[in-house]
Structures are given as C-alpha cells and as structure tokens.
Design goal:
By secondary structure, the protein is of the alpha/beta class. It has three domains: 65 residues, lambda repressor-like DNA-binding domains (434 Repressor (Amino-terminal Domain)); 130 residues, Response regulator (Rossmann fold); 131 residues, Rossmann fold (3-Layer(aba) Sandwich). The protein contains 14 helices and twelve strands. It is elongated.
Amino acid sequence: MSGKVTDALKGKVKRATLAEVASAVGLAKPTVSRALNDYPDISDETKRRVRETAEAMGYVASSRARQLQKGATDAIGLVISSASVGLQAAYQSEFTSALAAALDGHGLDLLLHSVADPVTEIDTYNRLFQQGKVDGFVLMRTRRDDERIRFLTERGVPFVTQGRTDQSAEHAWIDIDSQTAFSDAVGFLAAKGHGRIAMIAGDETIYSSSLRIAGYRQGLEKAGIAFDADLVLPGDFSAASGRLGLRRLVDSTTDVTAILCANDATAMGAISQAVELGIDVPKQLSVMGYDGVRMAEMFSPPLTTLSHSAAECGERIASMIVGLVGGDAPTDHQILLPAQIIERRSTGMAANV
C-alpha cells in the first residue's frame, strides 16, 4: 500500500465514508463506487486497490454491519429526476404520496432521493444499497434501455418497476394496459364523429411511449381510419410539448378535430395553447389525456382522460416489494391493470356531425 494511502488511514474510525476512501486512493467518488461494485470499465488493479483500502478503512464492514444488526433497514428507495416539474410532476407526486402511505401501513419508510444528472443515477443506487440504507427499490418511468434494471438484477437487489420493460419476464412489475387504453380512446373519439385524430406522443426513451402509439394505431384500424404519420407529433410528457404540438397542428392547416395526448400534462398544455389561439375546446377541437391526475378535473375545461388509480398502484407496489424483500420470486409479482375513460368537458361531438 502506498505511503499516501497508509497516511490517510492513520487515525481513521471504522465508519469511513465513500469520500474518505476516494481521497485515500486518489480517485473520484463515482470511480470508487464503480470499483467496489465490480463495473467492467474499471481495471482489475484499480478494483483491488480500492477494495483493499475500503476494507482497511472499515468502509464495507461498517456499512454492512449497520444493516446486519437489524437484518433489514425498514426503508424502500425511490430515486426520481429533479427535472420533473409543474404539471409533469403531478402524477409522480400523487403516486409517491400513495406509495409512502402504503409502505407506512407495512411498517416501512419511503426514502425519496432526487437526482439532477442522469449520468450519476446508477451511482445513487450503488450508494443507497451498499451503505445499507434501503432494502429494495421502486423504479418509475421504465426505459427502453434501462441500466437501472440490469444493475439491480445483476446484484440481486429487490425491486419493482412501475411499467414494463424488454426484460419484463424476469422482474417484478405493475403496469397499466396503455395499449388497450389508447385503442379504446381512439374508439371513443371516433364514436363522436372524429375522423382526423392526432396524437402528441411521450418521451420516446420511455418504454410505455411505444405502447401508447401502438394503441393509437390499433384504435384507428378498428375504427376504419387511415393512419397518417404526420398526425403523430413528438413530445416528452410535458405541458410545453402539448403547447408546441398544438401549434404545429395549427400551422400545418390540417383538418384535425381531436387530439389524444400521451399524458394529462401534455393535454393541459395543448388546451392552454388552444385557448390562447382562440380555438374553442371542445366545440372546435376535442382534447383527451392519460393518467387521471386530480388536477385534470379542476382544469378549464375539465379534462377527459384515461384514468388509473395512483393510490391503487402505490398500495399494490408496497405489497409487492415487501414480498420480494421477504424472498418471493420476482415472477410471482407481475400485474397488468386496466385504465378507465373518464369523460369530462374537453371532448365533444365533431363539429361536422
């Protein structure tokens, strides 16, 4: 061991922090974290040096000892993005409150952690579990290529995802049948005489976005309406993308009479932009959302939406993660729930009917 490391170890107490280990070996904290968790992009020599230093400083022993004293931490982690703000964060807020209340009923706490930089997200999962702060995780907004799932699966960490993934057969999840929901939504609008129905999509990196588009196309086919790729507008689940999508539709001078939006935030953004442009909702344009957030009912006009219960999702996930921490097989906890059309005043009959 180098003289620098030896000097750094003198006088250290058992409960060394990751920062102290990093300082001792002269490396950045993320690098040390990745070395301790056997990441392939860290050399074997660096892993050896970091592990020897961490062991000598008591870092690994102390973090695991705190966990083993009780056998569990009685806490479940939820890591969210601090980029979600305003209307976009409405569903996240409702779900988080429901999950925390449900976990409390099981005698568990919810440890909520916000990350601003997605690049450091995995390091957050590393730290929370390695230091024995949580027994498992709940993951929101599952992605097409989800490094979180690979990381947790490889290390045997209990977790439940809110949403399916390409690896759904292998892990625990709860999801809303958004493909069927969006197909039903198109049928609902078609029954009101709408033959030109646009869609403002969600973030394409999120797995469920493709399911919603597939449902939209499926609904058009069932209604005998030709699919027009120009009527599928990009979005990111934000109100801003709803406003931009609405402006693009107006600028393209299409004869669209209804818009189906990837979520309620996008729909409310589209409606607010329509009002600014003097477009009457729903007399001239029907707008429909997805999520069923409480705010949608109080919007003007109140939003027609595909609703699913955040409270039910929170309660179900709490029971699922408790089972997983207790040793249940992940494949025993896979649930698909339906969405329900809640009709309010943002949708009406097509003007030409």
